[in-house]
Amino acid sequence: MPEGRGKMNHGNMSYDDKPCFYKIIFDDQAEKARIPYGFMKHIPNEELGTATLESSSGRRWSVELRRKKDGLFITDGWQEFIRDNSLVNYELVLFTYDGKKHFSVQIFDPSGLEKASAPLIASMYQEAASSSKIKRKRGRPRKSTVSPFNLRRPKPRDGASGTPMNP
């Protein structure tokens, strides 16, 4: 949805005629995200500074809104938002401005489907990690790979007695 106003449902909340914009994630946005020039009219100077991004799950991130000569940016805290939501290239983040330094966000994968929110992703990761932990018995040596350097050659044996021969 391009910048503008729209009617949408976000989680349990409904947003009527709230300004919104989207960003497609690229590697060069790891440090900061530029807010579209036309959207700047919705954020007065007195609302610059610390703002909140809130996902549909209710998870919140504190970020900084900074106006520079080349635009308005989401800075400090943006990296954590990217990391916590495992954002990668070509994913889309939809920002709906609720006013008073608060943005509701929805995240979509490159196919257009909404991604699971950060707490759900974290709990799925923790569950997978805990179920994959297989404990090794103490004192049991680790299996090593076979290489020509750790092979021992058997000593030649005397055919009749089966005892090792001394060379």
Automatic annotation (TrEMBL):
CDD domains: B3_DNA (cd10017). GO terms for molecular function: DNA binding. Its main location: nucleus. Gene3D superfamilies: DNA-binding pseudobarrel domain. PROSITE patterns: B3. It is found in: Nucleus. GO terms for cellular component: nucleus. It comes from the Eukaryota. The keyword DNA-binding applies. Residues 133-143 have a biased composition (Basic residues). Residues 129-167 are annotated as: Disordered. Keywords: DNA-binding, Nucleus, Transcription, Transcription regulation. InterPro entries: B3_DNA-bd (IPR003340), DNA-bd_pseudobarrel_sf (IPR015300), Plant_B3_domain (IPR050655). SMART domains: B3. This is TF-B3 domain-containing protein. It comes from Escallonia rubra.
